[in-house]
Fold this protein.
Amino acid sequence: MSANMIELRDVTHAYRTKAGPLPVLDGLSMEIPENSFCAVVGPSGCGKSTLTRLVSGLMRPNEGEVWLHGQRVTSPRPTVGMAFQNPVLLEWRTILQNVLLPMEIVKSPMSKAQATERAHHLLDLVGLTGFAEKRPSELSGGMRQRASLCRSIIHKPDVLILDEPFGALDAFTREDLWCTMHDLRAEEPFTCLLITHDLRESVFLADQVVVMSGRPAHAQYVMQVDLPGKRSLDDLYSPKAVEMLATLRHQIQVAQGRTVDETAEAKP
Amino acid sequence: MNDTLRKILAPLLFIIGILAFWEWIVWYKQLPDFRMASPSDLIPRYVRFWDLFLIKSWETLWRTVAGLGLAVIFGTLIGMVMGFSRFAREGLYPILVGFNAIPKATVVPIVALMFVGQHDFNTVLIAFMISFFPIAVSVSIGLSTLEPEYRDILRSLGASNFTIFWKIALPKTLPEFFGALKVAVTLAFIGTNLMEIVSPHGRGLGDLFDSGRISADYPLMFAVLFALAALGIVLFYVVVFLERIFAGWAERNPG
């Protein structure tokens, strides 16, 4: 068994389009140790969302292997939780029923009462105390995203995949939710793969930041985030963090520039 | 004003206003009842033929509801097939549109010949044919426009397609479905009466209308129109009531 929770080995993937195959990933390899937090950043359209679909088993790569917990991923697995930029809450259910949705699909040792208790606990933890019986339409965008986070971990997944869940929120709500993420992980550890456009977010949340190159993407740069102890938002303004942010910014620029260069070279 | 009170009083007020205006214009222009009957002319007709009105209304009503029921079942099935399979959608759409474009008044004599003598069946068939289209289209659109994320939250947990349909696609389509049902309910009504009037067979309010025409009882014809409108309103609000039960969540509180 591998020590890594998530492992990608030389993954290559292309989408079929009218204009022929569109290569998205090209030899992407990544290692995410158990209970660590990995953030993936990169220029837009570089295949970050494709990555989440491959890790969750919603898609299979053309070439290469995706491993989860020492097993090769070939189909979706109930030990994975997912949250998207769009919170996709079901409007006809209450918040509590929404959070409990995965429990209706996944076979879990938790009883119904235990699951409900856990749902209430998670809602408390993300600051949604008293909203269990409300409908999604009665909640603000940030509150919906909090509920969506609760739903993604209700069934105690060992891997959480987040595809820009904070992207559409205002800056203050976003920072609030970053802290919520830290609280959740302190409560119960899980391995996390976060796709984001926000470099500050990646540094604040992750143990490891992977910069993807332009399309077709590989892992261009991997940075270990070394901010020990409980992180606070102030840490983002420490010289160390500022330096890391500058490095990431530079790497993104390289990734963006590379898109142009490589397509020029690829067609001799 | 109280909310429920307003909901009852407002339509009542408007109905009375319109009837009063109608009564006034007939009186003012001194229109004979073969040109336009006034509301006060109708009351004697209802008093005289109340038993006929009840029987004929029932005949019209149950056949409309039966046709509508078939339309719901068949329309939902077609909508599901079209919603889930792009192949079926692209193949069926032009056929459905073409079918819907045929004026049903032209279909009535054909159906009447095809199933000669089976009046109830014919009428239900026309009611069905005229009303299933909006249901099929709305269900197919509701299903085919389901955002992929909705599917993914369940699929990433290993849920089957049926589970996804049952837990997400179906409930999510309900508001569209009821929107279409409101259109379909009036259409089915038109279908039933079309059959009753174009191919007279002695049943339904259409028959009463026809006897009014034959015996030159013009107020009776107007009285039938009112009875039809009343039935239509009742059916429509039954659908609204069902919608509130099954898709009430889609209604947003004002403010």
